[in-house]
Write a structure and sequence with these properties.
The protein has 287 residues and is an alpha/beta fold. It has 9 helices and 10 strands. The strands form 2 sheets. The chain has an 8-stranded parallel sheet with strand order 8-7-6-5-4-3-10-9. The protein has a two-stranded antiparallel ribbon with strand order 1-2. Helix 3 runs parallel beside helix 4. 47% of the residues are buried.
Length: 287
Amino acid sequence: MNAKNTVFNIKSTINAGGRLIDMSEPVVMGIINNTPDSFYAGSRKQDMDAILKQAEMMLAEGAAILDIGGDSSRPGADEVNAGEEARRVLPAIKAILQRFPETCISVDTFRADIAEAAIAEGARIVNDISGGQLDEKMFETIGRLNVPYILMHMRGTPQTMNRLTDYQDMFAEMVDYFSSKLYQLRQLHVHDVIIDPGFGFAKTIDQNFELLSRLNDFKILGLPVLAGLSRKATVWKTLNSSSNDALNGTTVLNTVALLRGANILRVHDVKEAVEAIQLIGRIKPCS
C-alpha cells in the first residue's frame, strides 16, 4: 500500500501526564544521556550541572520533550545493571523538574521497574528501544501507569542487533511487528503510542535509507511516527566523517524525514531541528 496516495486518520495528540502534546505539527525531542559511552560524545552529561545546563539550552531552543537515558544503546555497548541505570536517570529527572517543572520528560529505558520509578519522579513518557521484548513486565506496567509509550522496532539487543539484519521484506515484517505489539498494548488499554522504526537498530545503512524513503508508509498504523537519525552512523559513515561532524548530514536527513511525515524528531541538536521544522512548514503541498 502506498501511504502517499492514501488519506489516513492519524492520531495527532498524546496525553502526557494530563498535558496534551499536539503533533499535528512536528515537535522536537532533545536527547540527554547520563552515560559515559553513548556514541556521540556531545550527548554525554555525567554531572548534574551539565545535565541542567543542557536541559535549559534545549528547552530554550524549542524542545517539546526531553529524553533522559542512562544505558547506552549504541551497537555493542556494555549493558549497565538496573541499579546503576536508576542512579543515573532518576536524580537527573528529579533535578530537571525541580528547575524546570513544566518539562515533559521521556525516560529512555527497556526496564519496567526503571520506567515505573521514573514516572513516579515526574517523567511522563516511556521510550523503550526493545518494544517490550527485553522485559516481559513492560507492557503491563505501561497499561497500569497509563502513560504514553514509544514503541521501537529492534531485533535482539544492542550487543547482538548488528548480526540480525536479514529480512525477506523489511517493511512488511516491521508492520507485522508493530501490529502485533499494538494489539497487545490495546488489550491493556494503552492507546497513546508513538511508532519508532528504529533507525540503526538491526538495520544496515542501506536498509536505513530504504526505511527513510518509506517512512510515510508507517502512517497505515494510524499513529505518530518518531524519527531518530541524529548523528548516527548512517549519516557519518555515508559521508566518511564522524559523529562529531554529522550535524549537517543529520539536518538533511531530518528534513527528508519531515517531508516523509515524521511527527517527532529525536535529536542531539535542538535548534537546527526546530529550524528545519519551521522552514518545512512554509512549503505548501503540491496541488
